[in-house]
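Notebook entry, cofactor series.
This is the third protein in the set we're modelling with a bound small molecule. For this one the ligand is molybdenum atom. I'm keeping the input format identical across the series so the outputs can be compared line by line later. Sequence and SMILES below, as received.
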Amino acid sequence: MSRSRSYAALGGAVSVGAGLAVAEFASGVAELGASPVLAAGEAVIALTPGGLSEAAIQLVGTADKPLLVLGTVLIALLVGAIAGVLALTRLGRGVALLAALGAVAAWAVIASEDGGVADTIPSVLGVCVAAAALSLLTRRVPHTDRVTSGGADRRRFLLLAGATAMGAAAVTLAGRALGEGRRVVEEARRTLRLPIKEPEVPTEVAVDVKGIGPWQTPNEDFYRIDTALGAPEVTPQDWRLRIHGLVEREIEIGYDELVDLGLENTWLTIACVSNPVGGPLIGNAWWSGVPIADLLARAGVAPEADAVLQTSVDGWTCGTPLRALTDQRGSLLAVAMNGEPLPVEHGFPVRMVVPGLYGYVSATKWLVDLEVTRFDRISAYWTEHGWGELGPIKTQSRIEVPAGGATVPAGRVGVGGVAWDQHVGIDRVEVRVDDGPWQDARLADVPNVDTWRQWAWTWDAEPGEHRLTVRATNAEGETQTSERQGVLPDGATGWHTVAVDVA
Ligand SMILES: Nc1nc2c(c(=O)[nH]1)N[C@H]1C(S)=C(S)[C@@H](COP(=O)(O)O)O[C@H]1N2
Ligand SMILES: [Mo]
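Returned structure with ligand:
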């Protein structure tokens, strides 16, 4: 009994279509990783000899990208058709071909610019869906020689294949609709050219302790905290900021106008009030933006004002003491982070950063409104939820190496971490073993008082279980308190301690 190869090929193509639809949805909407289709298309561009790809672009003009995507999809469907025919004799062979297709996609994802292994999740998901559909459809491929029941078999197969194809189309359309805004914003971000100075990490800011985090936090590793489900989608073209309230002149400004005011660049460590002692919700970056003090001076602030209420495009609010925005500490309307336009998750196109204040009272992302006002007239998102109104960052220090619970060999052990008190600066870090005497750690350099400061200490470790504790003293001579307090209402206090096993 032979079964129809053309139906099998159709089933295979439909299976790949279903896999592609799910993969694109997973990447475009669920943001689980890179799009295999786009990555494969980019790989084709990268592998095509320059002259040839230029000739192709000349030929098809701006349709080059859609054509490339179409071509990639058609090739994938063709491979699916072959997998369908292979699956007819043995399902495993068809699945193996699909897996190979997925492997090519995953390779393209990893080979692409800033692609990692985690970005292959959509490709892997796509292969799983395609394989499941293939196994389902292959079993129902009609026989060619069953003249009598053939009609019913065929109808059932076509119904199933049709339903799968319709499902794939529905997922693709939904994905396109849902992912459209994000695509537009990513494209706008990619094509922006900002007059920013590239970050140059100053010398001597890093201590020589193996395993310690980088002094400059890369954007991909920067902590993210906000109340937004997906990141709001605002293009520079659509962005406008209104400055109003207790001012002499209201200001409305667009993105290009803002950038034309001139960008300042600075190293600054921002931190979240919800960071527990020793926690990860802190990062150090090179920020580029317009000084908020300049804009407020243009608007002319009324003498009775003492606060600035910020609103983001998604309606989140926060209140900042006016002084922190008008004194010379360098609060910025930031447009870039580590030398590139703000990542969408970190507030693209414009956010605030204020040295010395926790993010919940100062670091509004996707900023669209600044109201000069008074604290006794406003309430903001987190202060309504019981958090403190002012939110100055507290002096803190963290042990990064050795990690809590680690086992280290006896002898000389490198100990290190960071300490911070933005806008004030760190002058001293001390470490102690168990209940022993405090001992001075070596401090790395810092470019200003607004960044965290790495520290290192060499421990002559004796076998047994030990506790390492750290404490910092700021530039005003105040040592961080040992009193343990949780993050509510205005930031955790206490000394960071790690337990270490010396073998
Ligand atoms: N629009 C908006 N901005 C926001 C928040 C938010 O929820 N929505 N969270 C704030 C908090 S609590 C912190 S700690 C910082 C974190 O900035 P990051 O995600 O870039 O690290 O953003 C602040 N800006
Ligand atoms: Mo935060």
